[in-house]
Design goal:
Layout (H helix, E strand, L loop, with lengths): L19 E3 L14 E5 L11 E8 L2 E8 L6 E5 L6 E10 L5 E12 L8 E2 L3 E2 L28 H5 L28 H6 L40 E6 L14 E6 L5 E6 L3 E8 L2 E4 L5 E3 L6 E4 L5 E5 L6 E5 H7 L4 E5 L8 E9 L5 E8 L5 E7 L5 E8 L3 E8 L6 E11 L2 E10 L8 E6 L4 E3 L6 E5 L5 E6 L4 E3 L14 E7 L5 E7 L4 E7 L7 E4 L4 E6 L6 E5 L4 E6 L1
Parallel strand pairs: 2-8
Antiparallel strand pairs: 1-28, 2-5, 3-4, 3-6, 6-7, 7-9, 10-38, 11-12, 12-13, 13-14, 13-15, 16-17, 17-18, 18-19, 20-21, 21-22, 22-23, 24-25, 25-26, 26-27, 29-30, 30-31, 32-33, 33-34, 34-35, 36-37, 37-38
Length: 577
């Protein structure tokens, strides 16, 4: 067996080396994503009461195309993906409920032109009060004034607005959900209706299980006693935050979140934005909050990557296409309220062929940093072990062909083992194939674990139990692989069966420190979602729909919180049981 690391934040001393590979494609991030995006502006005004919910439904004729439910956006902007390939015109309904399920206002807009794979301009949807649907104190706020045009008649029934199918639905918003009391299906609503309007989808149910029973499964002991919060119920409360800066019109800039990472002590979360900003959030029992100093680290112009040191002392930020790497003193930065730089590895010291810095990882002695530099077309790529001294120095450099990428590094205390997982992608019979290699790049003659797989490998990461690999394929299948020094052997029973939906992609994944749960950020031709899997297969999977494609996920060290970074408008979800 390859020698395990010691002291790594995911791999305590004495643990076996673990490999977890996510075999995925990023087709949905490119022009292959054929889902139209309808973008709306809804000025809630006085309807933005505590625990309010905004529900949006898109229809073509009498057909319900897509729906979502969420807490009010502070900028009044919403986006709804339609099924892939949808074209023509659609009608959009909007309803606003208070925390008791009382419909405060509704609105609609007809003739919205949509084109496959394209975004609409922002479309204003006026709201009309529906006071006759509210009783007593739940009536329309006194300060609410009806707009000049009524989108929906005041006598519109609940079922007319919430679901074109005629079913009565009572969605609950992310961030406004009771810790389980409300997570049940309303009378008369089918599981499909609840899933369509954005409630947590049960996912892959055990044989014979009813959808209405799923919410209770992870939280009840065999003897019927109530259990404490568990990772399997982490989707129960999801609150939305904005990573991006606001424009002059107080709208969130349209950038995605490429990576999210919790500090080892779980007290802070860092979001790496497509805008080059690396934003720090404070984490407590109430959720996330920006620091008073609004601390943001520089991540370069585009595509920053980064990692905490195992002890949380440092945060390394790779500047993507700017190639430079900056290592910040994290505790001192928090204390000063501004970025405190410990080391800088400028572009001038990087390998000459470097086109971008794609991966960084500390060694466990904290005195070295491993970085992978992707080469430009026709150039080689380079893995470098940097000694972090006054002037960073290259201690080891390994050359890779352009078609091979390093995805994960499991270092020891240098010059101990630096175990590297890489994948070389090539086109052969039957399509693209990936050759995955695991080796110690420091050893003079290291053994290799190697396998050739169908499809492209886009994500790999090391995890606590080293006897298995968990692979997430572009078919949506989550499989187990056994590993030794010479072989990767696929196990016959997948954790999650292959998806029947087309165009499935996996953009990121995370594993709890105890190795029991996996969260995969995925999408298909019709929806975007995060799938939660109990790796021991003794609990049902869960699925959380996201408004935009989920690009990044990370578990808190406790396993009782999950951060999700979305592809558009800097949306960051923070979910807890």
């Amino acid at each position: 067996m390859l020698k395990p690391s010691s002291g790594h934040e995911l791999h305590p001393r004495g643990a076996r080396m673990a490999l977890i590979a996510c075999l995925a494609s990023l087709a949905a991030c490119s022009s292959d994503d054929k889902r139209p995006l309808v973008r709306l502006e809804v000025a809630l005004g006085a309807y933005a009461v505590p625990a309010a919910t905004v529900t949006i439904v898109a229809m073509a004729g009498d057909t319900d195309l897509a729906a979502m439910s969420r807490a009010p956006d502070p900028n009044g902007r919403y986006g709804l993906y339609l099924p892939g390939g949808t074209s023509g015109t659609v009608k959009v309904y909007v309803s606003v409920e208070d925390g008791n399920g009382c419909v405060l206002a509704t609105g609609s807009v007809e003739g919205v032109a949509v084109t496959p794979g394209e975004r609409t301009d922002f479309i204003a949807v006026p709201l009309t009060p529906t006071g006759d649907l509210c009783l007593g104190d739940a009536a329309v706020p006194d300060s609410a004034a009806p707009p000049e045009e009524a989108g929906v008649p005041s006598d519109t029934s609940r079922s007319d607005v919430d679901a074109a199918s005629g079913e009565v639905a009572s969605p609950s918003a992310d961030g406004a959900r009771d810790a389980g009391a409300d997570a049940q299906m309303p009378d008369g609503a089918s599981p499909e209706v609840v899933a369509e309007i954005g409630a947590d989808r049960p996912g892959d149910l055990p044989v014979g299980a009813d959808a209405a029973d799923v919410s209770s499964l992870p939280d009840v002991q065999p003897d019927g006693a109530e259990a404490g919060p568990t990772t399997m119920s982490v989707f129960r409360n999801c609150a939305s935050y904005t990573h991006s800066e606001l424009t002059s019109q107080d709208a969130a800039a349209d950038y995605g979140i490429l990576k999210v990472a919790f500090s080892p002590d779980g007290k802070h979360l860092v979001s790496f934005g497509e805008d080059g900003r690396v934003k720090v959030w404070s984490v407590d029992a109430t959720g996330l909050s920006p620091l008073a100093s609004n601390l943001v680290f520089d991540g370069g112009r585009q595509n920053p990557v980064g990692v905490f040191s195992p002890d949380g002392k440092y945060l390394a930020v790779g500047h993507g296409y700017d190639v430079a790497i900056t290592i910040y003193d994290f505790p001192e930065s928090l204390q000063e309220g501004a970025a405190v730089v410990k080391w800088t590895i400028p572009r001038s010291l990087a390998p000459a062929t470097a086109h971008s810095v794609d991966y960084v990882q500390f060694t466990t002695d904290l005195g070295h940093l491993v970085a992978f530099y992707q080469g430009d077309t026709g150039d080689t790529s380079e893995l470098v072990v940097w000694e972090l001294a006054t002037t960073p120095t290259i201690m080891r450099q390994v050359t890779y062909p352009r078609e091979e990428r390093v995805h994960a590094v499991l270092p020891d205390s240098y010059p101990g083992p630096v175990i590297v997982a890489s994948a070389a992608v090539g086109l052969g019979d039957g399509g693209y194939r990936s050759t995955v290699t695991v080796t110690d790049v420091v050893a003079v003659s290291a053994s290799k674990a190697q396998a050739t797989l169908l499809g492209e490998v886009d994500r790999m990461a090391f995890a606590p139990d080293g006897s298995l690999i968990v692979g997430v394929a572009d078919s949506g299948e989550v499989s187990l692989w056994a590993v030794d020094v010479t072989n990767l052997v696929r196990q016959p029973l997948p954790l999650v069966p292959e998806s029947a939906a087309g165009g499935v992609g996996c953009h990121d994944f995370a594993i709890t420190l105890d190795g029991k749960y996996l969260a995969a950020a995925m999408d298909d031709d019709e929806s975007a979602f995060v799938k939660l899997v109990a790796l021991e297969q003794n609990e049902p999977t869960r699925t959380k729909d996201t408004e935009y494609i989920a690009w990044s996920v990370a578990f808190a060290p406790s396993g009782l919180a999950l951060a999700i970074g979305e592809r558009s408008f800097g949306i960051l979800l923070y979910c807890t049981p």
